[in-house]
Amino acid sequence: MTASRRIVVVGGVAGGMSAAARARRLDEHADIVVLEQGDFVSFANCGLPYHLSGEIDRRDSLLLHTPATLASTLNLDVRTGHRVTAIDRDAREVTVQTAERTYRLPYDALLLAPGATAVRPPVEGLDHPAVHALRVVPDVDALRATVDGLLASRDDGDRAAEPPTAVVVGAGFIGLEAVEALAARGLQVHLVELADHVLPPLDAELAPLLAEELASHGVRLHLGAGARKIRPAAEAADYGEETVRPAGPVVVTLSDGDEVTADLVVVNVGVRPASALAREAGLDLGPSGAIRVDGDQRTSDPHIWAVGDAVEVVQAVTGATGPVPLAGPANRQGRRAADSICGRRTTPQAPVLGTAIVRVFGLTAAVTGANQATLRRAGIDHEVVHVHPGHHAGYYPGAEQIHIVASFAPDGSLLGAQAVGRAGVDKRIDVLATALRAGMGADDLAELELAYSPPFGSAKDPVNMLGFVAQNVLDRTMPQWQAWELDEVREGTLVLDVRSRGEFAAGHLDGALNIPHTELRDRLDEVRDAAGGRPVSVHCASGVRSYLATRILRGEGVDARNLSGGWLTLTAVHPELLEDVAVRA
Amino acid sequence: MTASRRIVVVGGVAGGMSAAARARRLDEHADIVVLEQGDFVSFANCGLPYHLSGEIDRRDSLLLHTPATLASTLNLDVRTGHRVTAIDRDAREVTVQTAERTYRLPYDALLLAPGATAVRPPVEGLDHPAVHALRVVPDVDALRATVDGLLASRDDGDRAAEPPTAVVVGAGFIGLEAVEALAARGLQVHLVELADHVLPPLDAELAPLLAEELASHGVRLHLGAGARKIRPAAEAADYGEETVRPAGPVVVTLSDGDEVTADLVVVNVGVRPASALAREAGLDLGPSGAIRVDGDQRTSDPHIWAVGDAVEVVQAVTGATGPVPLAGPANRQGRRAADSICGRRTTPQAPVLGTAIVRVFGLTAAVTGANQATLRRAGIDHEVVHVHPGHHAGYYPGAEQIHIVASFAPDGSLLGAQAVGRAGVDKRIDVLATALRAGMGADDLAELELAYSPPFGSAKDPVNMLGFVAQNVLDRTMPQWQAWELDEVREGTLVLDVRSRGEFAAGHLDGALNIPHTELRDRLDEVRDAAGGRPVSVHCASGVRSYLATRILRGEGVDARNLSGGWLTLTAVHPELLEDVAVRA
Lengths: 585, 585
Ligand SMILES: Cc1cc2nc3c(=O)[nH]c(=O)nc-3n(C[C@H](O)[C@H](O)[C@H](O)COP(=O)(O)OP(=O)(O)OC[C@H]3O[C@@H](n4cnc5c(N)ncnc54)[C@H](O)[C@@H]3O)c2cc1C
Ligand SMILES: Cc1cc2nc3c(=O)[nH]c(=O)nc-3n(C[C@H](O)[C@H](O)[C@H](O)COP(=O)(O)OP(=O)(O)OC[C@H]3O[C@@H](n4cnc5c(N)ncnc54)[C@H](O)[C@@H]3O)c2cc1C
Ligand SMILES: CC(C)(COP(=O)(O)OP(=O)(O)OC[C@H]1O[C@@H](n2cnc3c(N)ncnc32)[C@H](O)[C@@H]1OP(=O)(O)O)[C@@H](O)C(=O)NCCC(=O)NCCS
Ligand SMILES: CC(C)(COP(=O)(O)OP(=O)(O)OC[C@H]1O[C@@H](n2cnc3c(N)ncnc32)[C@H](O)[C@@H]1OP(=O)(O)O)[C@@H](O)C(=O)NCCC(=O)NCCS
Description:
The structure is a homodimer.
Chain A lengths: L5 E5 L3 H13 L4 E6 L11 H5 L14 H8 L2 E4 L2 E6 L4 E5 L4 E5 L2 E4 L3 E3 L12 E2 L4 H20 L8 E5 L3 H12 L3 E6 L13 H10 L3 E4 L3 E6 L17 E5 L4 E4 L1 E4 L3 E3 L2 H5 L23 E3 L6 E2 L6 E2 L4 H15 L14 E5 L2 E7 L2 H6 L5 E5 L14 E7 L5 E8 L3 H13 L4 H6 L14 H13 L5 E2 L4 H7 L1 E4 L3 H5 L7 E2 L9 H8 L4 E4 L4 H12 L4 E4 L2 H8 L2 H4 L1 H4 L1
Parallel strand pairs in A: 1-2, 1-7, 2-3, 7-18, 9-16, 10-11, 10-16, 11-12, 26-30, 27-28, 27-29, 29-30
Antiparallel strand pairs in A: 4-5, 5-6, 8-17, 13-14, 14-15, 19-20, 21-22, 22-25, 23-24, 24-25
Helix pairs in contact in A: 1-8
Keywords (chains A, B): FAD, Flavoprotein, Oxidoreductase, Redox-active center
Protein name (chains A, B): FAD-dependent oxidoreductase
Family (chains A, B): Belongs to the class-III pyridine nucleotide-disulfide oxidoreductase family.
């Protein structure tokens, strides 16, 4: 038998360990060494927020494997506390540093899965011990200890005292999970986000739903504001004498001038590819600084592969390249790299959709494909469709509205979709992600055959409904106007509100004409008179009744357009409309 | 303006009313008449079982529309109690019969949406008033009245008395819903099914899970047995004197000789297309008796369209034709027919997948595409894969196993999939239905990018996992053996059980060698000795550990195969293995 090859893996978590495991299954005789700088391998990064909240009670649950179990099941040589500091590509050796020593390790194939590093925002005082990250196991250990300490000292003292306070900087996926976890532990949480809405990848129409959910759980939002400075709170602040509060309190100064006193701060403003090692070894990087790989995960060096948060992928829809730091792609890239290293048939990496999901208290938000901002930036022509169907048949108790936004190319192709709701969101985004991968369009969505019985869906599933509406928009059966065109619409058209009188009374647009849709056929003259030759901009609550009205009007030769997503979407984009209600009603 | 055309619709529920509604939206001026023989239109047939159970409390919730609301919103002329008895194709007129009169109604376009009629099984005494159907609103009214009466008379009398008893004949989707509903009301339910497992469209490996769930909720199963005869119970049966029980009790005699005394019987053994009207008018029917239509829902008469349970569709995968009585297709066919009638661009009906789902107490069962029996009958070559992944990350509390069976063509194409479990089943089947529609295969499933965070899924989603396993089976990385090959396997191979000693002790195959997978690398000689040149048939609980073992053995040159789905699937196919446990352990 020929000498077995040595596969060296740098980074022993999602991408790296998936590759090592698959490589072993493909090659029983390879010498597979996994080098991990930290103390833990194969841990569930994605579970860290749920250990912070206490939902995942035992830390051990997060450790899917240990070096010992990886040795006994997969015969892997896993070395924790071993950091790779250099790659000698000519010699095919890596330099490894441990607490005690430095050594060189030859490889036949090298796989880089070093992940990403947290972006350090330009905030003064970030090194204060009250400031935490949430990336690795020791981070969550420290956070739990801090929270436990804060709660314990409060329990010892005045039970009526204010709860401990946390500031979370960054309202991305992980930031939101941190907020939920800290609030679940009973902390008063402030959430600071530079963008003008929470979860920046989400389209602006959907984000207010999350903001409302956060607020209703007591979270204080600071949107459009960055953290500027973190300094120890003055001793003057009276937090009792006998307990030494762990690492706090601090005062966080925001860019809008606000100051928040907090017992702890969690910073999560994104990651950047951990590509220093690759760069120093002269491997090609993309403009984003991520490692460039081919469809087989191979870098510019034929003996080196790379996967996960550190690599560049082609993004679906736009074709742009850059990193997409998600666990699913990292795991599958690891598997693909192992296939390639072991000389197996591979299926090249498909353009990445960036499908992602987050639970925020009772709500779920999920995205797949390109969002509107991305499409605008890329100059890709698209129509945006908003629907708010129930997650299952309305006549069966418990139906929850799903708010779906999707973009379609003029030829009908789906470009991206997002959804927020209390139930059934994950299912619809997964179906849409599958459709997107398959290159489906409005016609295909309209015809998908999804499982229906009353507890699970509708005869016309929300995804079908999205397809119907998109078809109508694209073939101009239903021309539409968008919430963000409100100013032009108010200036140049008649606004016709076809909701009931009661709904109208509870809040409406100034100057709108109210004719309930069931009366429209008898009151066409009123519409024509009020319009005076201007186009008619119809709306109702969700878009369904106003669609009927739009069709009636167009059937009568009136130039009518329907508001996409109705009052629900309009007030999300223009929250000031809801504030005015008291005055107007 | 030219005279408006008249569109006449026969049948005012799923397909018919969807067509009428869409036609109105496309043509404000058409004269649209909907003729419905029953007293109700636009009712939620699919919700009937949930009104029986009481979950849908108000019957009105089932009536999505009334003739009045359809007039006010859509200007439809809806006529209940109007039965169409004949079509005069030459004159383009239908004959309509009401309680009072008969009239002829001319049409420009005629749409047939008469649905299906219940199959009457050859059971003596089916006309006894204790025997019920569950198809239309009056059926559920009668059933509720009967159940209410039975429960009330019991409450009046001896509270310790046995609960009322129901026999449900037919364990299809609706039969199972009826069972669940009656059990929820507190009845003792017997379920009689001619096939050898409940939910006959389900593959035999999955059905035992449903049977177990039914039994654990007190349902008595009579499988492989048909109802033969229903006769009034002898007066001798002592049910008290003062209450007259509504329409019962009866004695149901089964084909296996069993007799069950029951207060009510619900018969649901399938439907056949209601195509008599079409046949009498000379329209083309398929061999199944369903109305033949083209991709636009047009019948052999260019002025007549047909949709829903009454029509023939092309079934995906096999290409066979026949009716597929489901609400989703009916609704969408109605929409397509309206498009065609109104001269719009249509998207032709795609081959139908037959995606369907049912809740059975705490379990959900769902199917899409061809099942194994269908593939075998059609002579389509396929590999069957069984997996049992968690519905979300295992480290996050509450993960429930999903049992998935899927068939793949030798080229990797997905042919059909089925799943049973307590959570997440609907999502996976919808993703697989979308994949099937897109013509995806194992490679595509492996690479799908589905939404993952711990409460919703796994970095390697169950659907990805299915793809991985299928890839390994198809490229023979992991040759497998199937539970139904047990006899051959026991005769010609060594059975190697790689579970732990504890699992082995709790039940195993006679003659199996037990080597936990973590010890296998050190005990290869034992395997070689025991095998004595025979192939080695490996198994564990679910297939994962035995896959690792299979790869170790094959890496060492041993001809090893893995049991698809492991002990979980094996014991579902061979329940006698579990019965023997006490003896053997
Ligand atoms: C709190 C949190 C929650 C998340 N939630 C989700 C989620 O819900 N869904 C989702 O899809 N994704 C989530 N992610 C992202 C996901 O965990 C990552 O995308 C994924 O782990 C990336 O895999 P990777 O193998 O590239 O890197 P990692 O899994 O981060 O592993 C990289 C490893 O390499 C080690 N390493 C780096 N450099 C060296 C070196 N020179 N020598 C030795 N070792 C080195 C690091 O110590 C690290 O352990 C979350 C991440 C975090 C932190
Ligand atoms: C209890 C029950 C539960 C169900 N659950 C589900 C489910 O969970 N999921 C699912 O997908 N499907 C389900 N179905 C099936 C679904 O309801 C049907 O597939 C669907 O309704 C078929 O639509 P259709 O328009 O063809 O027929 P129907 O909706 O049955 O409508 C046909 C109508 O035509 C009328 N009619 C017939 N002949 C004439 C005539 N000559 N003149 C005038 N009127 C006439 C009938 O009275 C009837 O009202 C269920 C069905 C039932 C009965
Ligand atoms: C756990 C870890 C070591 C990966 O291990 P893995 O062995 O590749 O993955 P799994 O344990 O899920 O097993 C998957 C394998 O089992 C196989 N399998 C699954 N079910 C099977 C069944 N019923 N029968 C046969 N094989 C089966 C799959 O085909 C796959 O093998 P393949 O890749 O060779 O095709 C690695 O992913 C890891 O370290 N993860 C933790 C970190 C992480 O992922 N973080 C981000 C998310 S929190
Ligand atoms: C209810 C029934 C009358 C159908 O009515 P329908 O008007 O076609 O269907 P819906 O009320 O769901 O509305 C769908 C329409 O609203 C449109 N729509 C949905 N959301 C919209 C939004 N936010 N903005 C604009 N339009 C929207 C859709 O595009 C679709 O119109 P289209 O077909 O012209 O494209 C008919 O299906 C029926 O009688 N159903 C009961 C029986 C039944 O289905 N039984 C079996 C299942 S229980």
